[in-house]
Every structure is written in C-alpha cells, then in structure tokens.
Design goal:
Elements lengths: L5 E5 L4 H11 L4 E6 L14 E4 L4 H10 L4 E5 L7 H4 L3 H10 L6 H14 L3 E3 L1 H4 L8 E2 L7 H19 L5 E5 L2 E5 L5 H8 L10 E4 L13 E2 L1 H9 L4 E5 L4 E2 L2 H11 L2 E5 L1 H7 L1
Parallel strand pairs: 1-2, 1-4, 2-3, 4-5, 9-11, 10-12, 11-13
Antiparallel strand pairs: 6-13, 7-8, 7-9
Length: 280
C-alpha cells in the first residue's frame, strides 16, 4: 500500500498536517485537496502538492485526483457547517446531490455517498488508521488519573445515550454529570458541546465526556477524535474526564494529550462500549 499514491481530503485540525508529514517521512507520493474555510493555510506551503476547493467543488477535486493518478484516498479533519456560497456546486457535484437525494440529510449519509463516488472513479478510500495506526485510542486508562465509581457510572450512562444518538446519525458525544445528561453533540461539534455544557454544570464532582463511533459508522470516515483542545475545553468547563471508543477513535498527539490531562487532573480512558456495559 505504501507505493500507491495517496489523496488527502483535508478539513480542519492538526491531523492533516500529521498525515502530510508522515507521507514525507515514508517518502510516499501524495496530493491534497484542502477544503476552504476548514483546512489551516499554514500547512500548505509551496512544497506541499495541493489544491484549494470549496465543499461545492467536490467534482472538480475528484477530477484533479484522477489527473494526479491518485489511487488511495483519506478524508480527514473537521468540516464546519458550510455557508451558502461554499455550497454552490460545480456541475458534477450538482449531479451528485441529485443522485443521493435524502441521503444527504444525515451526518454520515453524504460521506458514505462520497466514498462510493470516489470508488466509482477507481480510487480506494482508506481510513487514516490504515495509514497511521498509532492514532487509534488504546483500551484502558491512558494517564495517571483514573475514573472512580461515580465517574464510571456517568460513563455507563454516557455510553447508553451516545449509542442511541449514533444510531440516529446525530452525533458521537455526550456529557454526563452525576447521572444527568448535560448535553448531546449536534451539528456544532464536540468542542462547542463541551463549552455549552459548562453553563449547565452542577455543584460537586464534574461531568464526563463520552465519545463513541456510531454503530453504523464506516471506520474510514469521521472517527471520534480527541486532542489537546479537547482537554483544554474539558478543564475549562469543569469536566473530570473523557472516555473514548478504544480501537474506534483517534487521539491526536497522544503524548501531549496525556501530559496535559495529567497536569490538569483529568482522566482519559479508552473503552469498549459493550464490555463496559457488562462490567458496570
């Protein structure tokens, strides 16, 4: 797989840069489609082979991948809700939206349709974990702080809610404090969810963020992800820890995330939802 040219569809966050650096280290040929308003311009100097596109220019981007003889594709990074201007489609993207119809209504429906479109063009869509497996969250406690019985009870409640939320294709994350659901993730994303829940926190021991892969979610797209910003927001909102889907979620810059969590007194635990429910 290392000899195949990699196409990177880059949204926001730091993982696109990590993947670019990884390709350079491995001397793997690559080309990036950077999504305007999402990808960080600082990552795309002249020596990075790339093209900027709006979300509505997916068809133009796929054509460029074909011209670049891309064989494997990874979609990575956060995508903010686009403006009307960003959504104005090119001709191929217009046909694409007409074809998928109501599939675009769910968070994952449009992504699965994009995967099918890319593979129809002869490319293979990979998960970032297939290229960089070290990004996957390991099972168990990842730092020096551990969840106590009350935190474990909140995690169990969070798992129940997050799985139902995922089945409805709504979001991946939920915040629970003292058995109460303070908030669930919608279109705003995890960072905004954590910040919003800070306004609803109760006195006493802080809440827990639980973030799981949706039951029907394709492992190649939009895996639940945490990074240093997640820890910073969790601390600012009075949370006491974070539980992430082990083997099904990503941790960006693991050593720095654990170091910061240790410093701020937060726990991080990788969980298997099914096993966790049985044990607690």
């Amino acid at each position: 797989m290392t000899e195949r040219k990699l196409g990177i569809i880059a949204g926001g966050g730091t993982i696109p840069q990590m993947l670019i650096n990884y390709c350079r280290e491995q001397k793997r040929d690559y080309f990036v489609l950077a999504i305007e308003g999402n990808a960080n311009p600082d990552y795309f100097s002249e020596d990075v082979p790339h093209m900027w596109i709006r979300i509505g220019q997916a068809g133009t981007g796929f054509k460029r991948f074909a011209e670049q003889k891309v064989q494997d594709v990874v979609m990575i990074g956060t995508i903010k809700r686009p403006s009307f201007k960003e959504l104005v489609p090119d001709l191929r993207t217009t046909a694409f939206f007409a074809k998928i119809g109501t599939k675009a209504l769910g968070d994952d429906g449009i992504l699965r349709a994009l995967v099918q479109e890319l593979e129809h063009d002869g490319m293979v869509v990979r998960g970032v974990h297939e290229v960089m497996p070290e990004l996957l969250v390991k099972e168990g406690v990842l730092g020096k702080h551990k969840p106590d019985k009350k935190a474990l009870a909140d995690i169990k409640r969070g798992v129940e809610v997050a799985l139902e939320l995922g089945r409805l294709d709504v979001g991946q994350a939920v915040v629970v404090q003292q058995g109460l659901v303070l908030g669930v993730e919608g279109i705003e994303g995890t960072d905004k969810l954590i910040q919003r829940c800070g306004d609803y926190r109760r006195k006493g021991e802080g809440g827990v963020l639980v973030k799981l892969r949706k039951p029907q979610q394709d492992m190649r797209i939009d895996l639940p992800t945490i990074g240093t910003r997640t820890i910073e927001n969790a601390k600012a909102s009075g949370l006491r820890g974070i539980a992430v889907h082990a083997g099904n979620g990503l941790i960006v810059d693991e050593s720095e995330v654990i170091k910061l969590a240790n410093k701020e007194g937060l726990f991080i635990i990788g969980i298997n939802p099914a096993d966790f429910a049985e044990k607690n």
